[in-house]
Design brief:
Pfam families: TetR_C_24, TetR_N. This protein is mainly alpha-helical and 217 residues long. The chain contains eight helices and no strands.
């Protein structure tokens, strides 16, 4: 017989979370250290120590510290591409498209604070070939926002006297630099930040509504 006074069996422990591949672990730690200390101030020995590895063991997974930086920057660029470029074929008016693009841009930054910091702050340390590739990518993003402004001017929703390049630079300055001050988990969500930025910017960018004159008889 079973003793009814015996305590119930302990619940089964939840299954252990699957271990991430070592290469992914290395990239995550590199993103954190590069964002906190800077690329040049982080050594391969620092990376190995954070991962509980011997310094030489890292080279079984990566070729160099430069390869790590390139991987972090390339991955961030792909995240921005995936978030933004689907808007190109959207039929919404330019002000709404700019607002949505700003939200998506800030969402990528907020969801990837460490790699975004590396992307925007440490990319200048890339090798010449990778530096050129990222410069070309930045030109593509500039053109994306510039095209939104041009769309708005043509459809009459944005002021006709706007300089598309300068306006695109203003938008990019707002969304790119969010990594310097935004903290996930605070009082503002990425959507809140994007809405406030968009409200302030679009107030100055949008064309004045056409006021009908008195009806002639």
């Amino acid at each position: 017989m079973t003793d009814s006074s015996s305590p119930p069996p302990a619940p089964a422990a939840p299954p252990a979370a699957p271990t991430k591949p070592r290469r992914e672990q290395i990239h995550e730690v590199a993103s954190r250290l590069f964002s906190e200390r800077g690329y040049h101030a982080t050594s391969m020995r620092d990376l190995a120590g954070q991962l509980g590895m011997q310094g030489g063991s890292l080279y079984a997974h990566i070729a160099s510290k430069d390869e790590l930086l390139i991987g972090i920057v390339d991955r961030a660029a792909r995240q921005f591409d995936g978030a933004l470029f689907t808007l190109r074929g959207d039929s919404m008016p330019a002000p709404e498209k700019i607002r949505e693009a700003m939200h998506r841009h800030i969402r990528v930054v907020a969801d990837n604070m460490e790699s975004a910091t590396v992307f925007f702050h440490e990319w200048k340390h890339l090798s010449p070939e990778a530096y050129t590739r990222v410069t070309n990518w930045r030109d593509t993003i500039d053109a994306f926002y510039r095209d939104l402004v041009i769309q708005g001017i043509r459809e009459g929703s944005l002021r006709a006297d706007l300089d598309p390049k300068m306006t695109a630079n203003l938008i990019l300055s707002a969304v790119n630099w969010a990594y310097t001050w935004y903290r996930p988990g605070g009082s503002m969500t990425p959507r809140d930040v994007a809405e406030q930025y968009a409200d302030m910017l679009l107030t100055g960018l949008q064309a004045a509504p056409v006021v009908a004159g008195p009806e002639r008889r």
